[in-house]
Request: fold
Amino acid sequence: MHIESIRLKNFKSFREAEMRDIPSYCVVVGANGTGKTTLFDVFGFLKDCLTFNVRQALQVRGGFSEVVSRGTPANSMIEIEIKYRMEIAGIDRLVSYIVKIGKVDNKPAVMREILRYKRGRYGSPYHFLDFSQGSGYAITNEEDFDKPDEELEREEQSIGRDVLAIKGLGQFERFKAANAFRRLIENWHVSDFHINLARGSKDAAGFDEHLSVTGDNLQLVARNIYESRPDIFQKIVDVMKRRVPGINNIKPVPTPDGRLLLSFQDGAFVDPFIDKYVSDGTIKMFAYLVLLYDPHPHPLLCVEEPENQLYPKLQPELAEEFRHYANQGGQVFVSTHSPDFLNAVELDEVFWLVKEQGYTLIRRARDNAQITAFMADGDQMGYLWKQGFFEGADPQ
Reply:
C-alpha cells in the first residue's frame, strides 16, 4: 500500500492544505513553527483514534479546541482525507479514506467516515463504508465487481459516536479495504527517538520484535535480530562499519545480573565499549539501522529530524539508508533542518512548509521553476535551501 495524497482541513495550523502525488521517500523542510511536527502528528492522531477512540486521541493533544484550527467558526469540523493505492480483486485501485470530526452535545464525535473507491474504470467512487455519528453500513461482498450496485450486501452497524468504524469492522477480512487500511495504520511507526532511553541495560527476559517509537527497547530488538536473523544483523553491522569510522563489531551481551546491553568494538582497542560510553551519533545510527533493516518492516515510517546528534558526514549516509528502505517497498516521511541531509535528496522528494496569515501551506520543490532549473544544472538541494531559494522556509 502506498499513500498518494493527504488533505487536511482545520487540523491545527493546517486550515486547508494538501499533499499530492506523494513519493515513496518524502522529505519535509520548513522554518521552526511552520507545522512539520503537526503534519507528522496526523499519522499519530489517526493511530491513537484507532487504538483508543477519538475522544482520547483529542484529549492527549489538549482537547478538540486545541486541535481544530484557531479562528474557525464554532461548528467547524476537523477533516482528514488519505488516498492510498492497494490491490483489490487483482486490480490496483486508488482508495479514499475520509474522516470528519466535530462535536455533538459538546462531546467529540465522528460526524462522517467514508471509505470509497471506483468499482470499474468509469463512474464515481462507490462508498464501501459510510458512517455518521455512530451509525452506518459496510459492504461485505465488495469484490463482486460483476454485480450491480443494488445487489451489493450492506451490513448495518451501530458503534459509539467517538469510535472509528474501521476500528471494529477493520478486524474482519470480509471488509477488504477497511481491513487493509486498519492494518496499515496499526503498523505505522511515528518515531519519537530519545538517546537517553536507548542507552543502558534492559531486562534480558524481555522480547521485542520491533523498535519502539522512543527506542527504549533497542537492546531487546537487537538481540532478537541477532538470534533469529543473524544474516540481517550482520548486514546492520556491515553498514555501521561502512558508515561510522572505527566500528568493527556490535553484539548484544547479557550481564551476570540477568540484564542485556550492547557492546561496540572499536578496531583500535582490544576491549569493547558498552553503549553507555558510546557517542550519541553512534547509538542513533545503530538504532535507525535496526529500524530500517527490521525483518518485518513497517509499511510507513515518520521520522523527525533524524540528523540530530549525527556528525554532518553521516547525514547523507542516513538519507541514503532511508531511500533504500523506501525502494524496498516501504514509505518514508522525514523532516529535516540539515542542508547536509537535504543534499542527498532528489528534487521530486522534497516538500516545504510556509505560514501565511497564521496557517500552514504546503509547497513542492519540483513546482518551483527556479529550484528545478538549478537542480538540472547540478546544484544540490541543501545548498539551494541554505541560500534562501525555498521562500518562507529558510533554515534556522
In short: The radius of gyration is 23 Å. The first helix runs from residue 36 to 51.
